[in-house]
Design brief:
By secondary structure, this protein is mainly alpha-helical. It is built from 7 helices and no strands. It is 81% helix and 0% strand. The longest helix has 19 residues.
Length: 111
């Protein structure tokens, strides 16, 4: 393996920074909350928690097929996110926070 190939694999192995992780998790939680799917999403996350690492490895396997559609950087970010076991806990906490806070539509209705 030459140095270019080694460098390209390093991107897959680098953990996300805390800022990147929290921004991605917040974006996902807000999208789930906008659709009102906090409960089903929480159940799915809890049920599939043990499969997170394997899903990340599956992303690597499917990258040649999905990268032209989604982009290589997105695939790498998704893999790095799924490889971290704390991601599920953080996403569940963020979903609970969004479920507890009133939405902008609920605040408008109170006025």
């Amino acid at each position: 393996m030459n140095s270019t190939e080694a460098d390209s694999w390093e991107v897959w192995n680098q953990p996300l920074t805390e800022a990147e992780r929290s921004q991605i998790i917040s974006t996902v939680a807000e999208a789930i909350a906008r659709r009102g799917l906090q409960t089903p999403a929480s159940l799915l996350i809890e049920m599939h928690r043990p499969l997170g690492y394997m899903a990340g490895q599956g992303i690597i396997l499917l990258t040649p097929f999905l990268a032209p559609l989604l982009g290589l950087e997105r695939m790498q970010t998704l893999n790095r996110l799924l490889a971290d076991p704390d991601t599920a806990d953080e996403l569940l906490l963020k979903l609970q926070e969004t479920a507890a806070s009133p939405t902008s539509e609920e605040r408008k209705g109170e006025r």
